[in-house]
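Cytochrome P460 domain-containing protein, Rhodovarius crocodyli. Tokens?
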Amino acid sequence: MVREGFARPGRCRDRHGQCGAGAGLTKGPMLARPETPREPGAIMRPAIVLALLIAGATPAPAQAPPPYTPGPLNITMPADWATRFLNYSSIDNEQRKIVRRFYVNPEALAAATPGAPLPSGTMIVMADHRARLDAQGNPLRDLRGRFMYEPTPFLLSVQEKRDGWGEGYPADIRNGNWEYARFNPDLSRQAGMDTAGSMRPCFTCHLGVRPQQDFAFDFWDYVNRPR
Ligand code: HEC
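Tokens:
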């Protein structure tokens, strides 16, 4: 396994892929939004006009955000993540013939401090790409010996932390303020990954391996790298 950065012994990195491994690109059908039919020259009925006037006169009560409930639905992928997030690490996985590329939102990178818990609002994206293979099925390598890979990832695994998150998870599961989620390359949620229970393996493994590193791996190591 070749990795940018430096080696960290005693990690269960090969096992990571087992949960949800092989999940392919499942592009959902694009649903066309139907055009709202409009009657040309329709005249508003007085009742509607009155309702609109009342609505305009009384300010709508401020919508309180829905209370936090544990689960992956708290995480949504920003549409511009691929161009905005920063790639701090990547791994060639020889066994699985994939390249894992790791990204974080720039705000979190700017706010992260060595030795301290990662900042609230940290969003880490781990993008799995298939390696490009030669005629014998071996990964093609670039000049530096790193795998060449398909430009589009086939799986996005995400962890995000926010103040107030994590409440409600039992102690043997809770990863501080972190939530986990999995997405397809088109940013739709991966099938079956929509309940807190479905993300349980993520919590268990990260809690077991990296409790002293704020439940993160390469991003923690990047922030705390020797300089
Ligand atoms: C069996 C252990 C294990 C399981 C289960 C697991 N992970 Fe991981 N995770 C790892 C390891 C090890 C790494 C470091 C990257 C590597 O070596 O592949 C990692 C890295 C990550 C990272 C990047 C972290 C960083 O700091 O760069 C994210 C995001 C992530 N995992 C999300 C998830 C999600 C989402 C799930 C569940 C769907 C999950 N993981 C399940 C072990 C696991």
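The beta strands are 2-3, 86-93, 98-104, 123-130, 155-161, 178-183.
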